[in-house]
Design a protein that fits this description.
By secondary structure, the chain is of the alpha+beta class. The protein has 5 helices and 7 strands. The strands form 3 sheets. Strands 1-7-6 form a 3-stranded antiparallel beta sheet. Strands 2-3 form a two-stranded antiparallel ribbon. α1 (about 15-20) packs across α4. The longest helix has 18 residues, at about 50-65. The chain is globular and about 40 Å long.
Length: about 140
């Protein structure tokens, strides 16, 4: 039987402001793809709320993989915009391999932000069922 998994993460705006101001945003460039960086620019500078949402979504997606002691493949998980502006997950490289190994068929994310933080939830369909989280009757 197949089921889904859920991941969640929260990123404070202050952490993003600090990263954006340090080393001319070099830390963010290691965490966001060129396309994500482009989507996160506004006429007034970096979209702090949007960046925080993307980072939270990447963490939430990574939590779906349930791979202990591995680092998050930041650039392999992209949070882009689909039709209507909804967030869309695109995986590549090691992240795509982890999703394939986990048996994922599709990943959805939802992001919300309001000062002082952004929260993201990720859901995958098609994950193989395990004993973890399964309801049983007594």
């Amino acid at each position: 039987m197949r089921h889904g998994r859920v991941g969640i993460d929260l990123v404070p705006f202050g952490r993003v402001r600090e990263m954006a101001g340090r080393d001319n945003g070099a830390a963010l460039a290691r965490m966001l793809s060129e396309e994500e960086l482009r989507l996160s620019r506004t006429a007034g500078g970096p979209d702090i709320a949007g960046i925080a949402g993307r980072l939270a979504a990447k963490e939430a997606v990574f939590k779906l993989f349930r791979v202990p002691r591995q680092t998050l493949p930041w650039l392999g998980i992209e949070i882009l915009k689909g039709d209507g502006g909804w967030p869309v997950v695109r995986l590549s490289g090691r992240a795509a391999d982890l999703a394939r190994d986990a048996g994922f068929e599709h990943i959805e994310v939802s992001i919300t932000h309001d000062e002082p933080c952004a929260v993201a939830v990720a859901f995958c369909a098609g994950a193989p069922e395990t004993d973890t989280g399964r309801l049983t009757s007594a």
